[in-house]
Amino acid sequence: MSSSQSGGQAGAGASGNEYQEYEPAKGTQEAGSKNEGAGNNPAFSLAGPGANNPASNAYVGDQYMEYNPQYGQPNENPTWSLAQPLPHIVRPGMQHGALPEDRKEDKQRIENGQPVNESSDKPDDEFFNTWTKIRHALREPLAEWLGTTVAMTIGLCATLSNFTSSGQAGTYTSQSVAWGFGFMVAIYITGGISGGHLNPAFSIAMSIFRGFPARKCIQYIAAQLLGAITAGGISYAIYHDAILEVVATSKLPQNASVAATAMITAPKSFVHPATAFFTEFLGSAILFGAIVALGDDTNAPPGAGMQAFILGILISIVVLALGYNTGGCFNCARDFGPRLVALMAGWGGQLFREYHAWWVWGPWCADISGALFGAFMYDLAIFTGGESPLNYPPRRRKRALRVRTVNLRKKLGLGPKKRTRDLEKSISGSNS
């Protein structure tokens, strides 16, 4: 009651008997606006607390605590919120003392004057079971496999949904968006572990132009191809009944039905091979050129966590703009995995021979060379970092190329296996 009376008195002091919820800002209208923007008066904004001034806290009225005494009290319990990082806790079964032998060992330690509450089953190598040790060694390739599986499953299922339903359950626009946002989701899942390459062409270009280790590059490509095969198998199994229905309706074999257009990429019958090649080349160049631009902190990098969202939009746009001629591959694994699954499903070996072995010179040659060209053009025009070969001093560039050549020939068993002792002399001779 006292609170309402004080509120009424404040209102009466301001404008007769009219009730006001808070004291208005003193001075001019401009000063009042500034006062509200600083958070001194309540701003009922749908943008959330502190929207006008992110550094300020939410407004709390003078009488608010009387009606909500629990407000602002510290919460010591973990909150499993999907809007923030999940808490790290020790499960009851993992806590010390959960096993009878824990209590027995604690009693013995007390008798011996030793500290208690220490896990006796902690191994010396900090791995509690075999799988944690395997995962530690293969965490990045496993992330690439999982990310590629998720991204391609979303994209392939959206494409199969469009084609097998004759456009009733999707359009070319919707499947393009599904491909883009499928990769966005996958990058959010795996980006913090492996970087979310999800594309052999990107891993290769990253190795050449950004110093990504070659050994990891090989591991990533193997994981990406395995993920593409997994995604192709999942998508084919999910839409197997729809594919059979389309085959029964069109009276065509599976490898000649619209399902083949959804599972694998290929140029349209009227598209010239050179046009098909440079379509894939251009799309990959734009994609990877944008990727290295987004990763350049001397340019205008997006805010934290926004790279994946922007890449999802970019992939959707590139597929929409350039996907008609060839099916919009722009990813070596996107074509190879489902094509191999189709071969295992009995679609015939001609899948790897049609269009003059398109699967080699399109998704592999065009996409890899396009990604390399995109990085080259960005580094040539904008990038100043020393990790790019374009920014090496001439002598270091020649030496790095010579060392790579010697090491590669040695690993492949080509030529003499002994090292080139006069490496520096040969480089100096090439300069003269």
TrEMBL record:
Pfam families: MIP
Subcellular location: Membrane
Region called Disordered, residue ranges: 1-59, 90-125
PROSITE patterns the record matches: MIP
Biased composition (Basic and acidic residues): 99-110
Superkingdom, taxonomy of origin: Eukaryota
Record-annotated membrane-spanning stretches: 142-164, 176-196, 217-239, 274-294, 306-324
Keywords, in A-Z order: Membrane, Repeat, Transmembrane, Transmembrane helix, Transport
Biased composition (Low complexity): 47-58
GO molecular function, one term: water channel activity
Sequence similarity: Belongs to the MIP/aquaporin (TC 1.A.8) family.
Protein name as it appears in the record: Aquaporin
Annotated organism of origin: Penicillium citrinum
